[in-house]
Amino acid sequence: MDDSARVEKAARQVVEEHDPKKVPLREFLGACYDAGVAWVHFPEGLGGLGVSRGLQAVADEILQGAGGINPFAINPIGHGMAAPTVLEHGQGDLAAQLLRPLASTEHIWCQLFSEPGAGSDLAGLATSAVRDGDDWVVNGQKVWTSLAHRARYALLLARSDPDAFKHKGLTYFVMDMQAEGVETRPLRQMTGQAEFNEVYMSDVRIPDSHRLGAVGDGWRVAMTTLMNERSSIGGTSSVRGVGAIGDAVDLWAARPELRTPVLRDKLAALWTRAEAQRLTDQRARRSASTGSPGPEGSIAKVVSAELNQAVYEFCMEFLGPEATLYGDYTLRDIGRMEDYRGGIQQRFLRARANTIEGGTSEVLRNVIGERVLGLPGDLRADSGKPWKEIPRG
Ligand SMILES: Cc1cc2nc3c(=O)[nH]c(=O)nc-3n(C[C@H](O)[C@H](O)[C@H](O)COP(=O)(O)OP(=O)(O)OC[C@H]3O[C@@H](n4cnc5c(N)ncnc54)[C@H](O)[C@@H]3O)c2cc1C
């Protein structure tokens, strides 16, 4: 049996034995893990079948076609970023311990990277990790941490050697968000929702067995996370006309009285861009091998973020004065994930974050210029200096 047929058989068996419309979500997603269709390119026994990453589309079509929820929608950081990072860099049986509850969404994950003084310049971060016996002791503050208030585990990047150059003195950990000394405070976005948080760490102890990669090699591990983040955020549905462009078409269909020829032209142009992106993404996914995605994932991320914004701007223009009607800015949790996208005005407001989260479009254009096109590097005034000598605001 060829690999594609194996994937198809495994996915069909899951939906026959654990009908996603009838069984609890965690049971269905746990069964996907056990059958090797959570991430088909992962090894057998760890949620995969050891086949090409491109065959995930074969599994997803069957699983989602039967009504299964895409786990990325519930546990985006866990499913899209933590799983490949733990698999590639975890010690001993860490991946075996952590991946199944991650895949079933029993454990939600978050990403403790950004700090008040380190966003685009992530390698400048200041949260410290100091070795103490078999543990590390962590102190510092993170910010913009999506889903920290729901997370059981975090991907943490911290400074273990302030005397080293900024990219060299970092070490990467999996942190238990229920550990003593972790404090999570919600931050309200302009939608009113508190999707992300500030996270304070005061003498939090992390066992050395939860370190990913070598001491001082955290930047390389972070690259695995960031490349997977960009390609998973930038990835589109394989189904035509869903997502933002589907919202615009639905709005167009629902409100014939608001249509004009000029708006029709604009919608047609956006549809064409969305199709070009979907087909490019599909082609890239099908030709992807088993390894980690490379810097070219940044292209999909830039394109999808800017397209999303353009589509929701079109929706607001289409609605005219109605676009300004938005009822509730009070601080609230994101609610059930199914409700998370809210009404069309909320989606417009949320889309403003698309060109910031997961790396800003400006910074990703630098990544594309330097690492895909081979253009000369950005000016870096602090290169070659130990981190502790770099002036900080
Ligand atoms: C909705 C949302 C969710 C997020 N979730 C998480 C999360 O879960 N975990 C996490 O760790 N972080 C998260 N972030 C943070 C995100 O990664 C950062 O906001 C982002 O990397 C930008 O960093 P900054 O906000 O510090 O902006 P800055 O780095 O201060 O950038 C400010 C401006 O300067 C520009 N700029 C900076 N450097 C350059 C350069 N070299 N060349 C050209 N222009 C430049 C930027 O493009 C931007 O316009 C989230 C952000 C958002 C909006």
Automatic annotation (TrEMBL):
Pfam family, one: Acyl-CoA_dh_1
Keywords from the UniProt entry: FAD, Flavoprotein, Oxidoreductase
Domain Acyl-CoA dehydrogenase/oxidase C-terminal: 216-373
Coiled coil: none
Boundaries of every Acyl-CoA dehydrogenase/oxidase N-terminal domain copy: 8-106
UniProt cofactor(s): FAD
Every Acyl-CoA oxidase/dehydrogenase middle domain range: 110-204
InterPro entries in the record: Acyl-CoA_Oxase/DH_mid-dom (IPR006091), Acyl-CoA_Oxase/DH_mid-dom_sf (IPR046373), AcylCo_DH-like_C (IPR036250), AcylCo_DH/oxidase_C (IPR009075), AcylCoA_DH/ox_N (IPR013786), AcylCoA_DH/ox_N_sf (IPR037069), AcylCoA_DH/oxidase_NM_dom_sf (IPR009100), Mycobact_Acyl-CoA_DH (IPR052161)
Family statement drawn from the similarity comment of this UniProt entry: Belongs to the acyl-CoA dehydrogenase family.
Protein name: Acyl-CoA dehydrogenase family protein
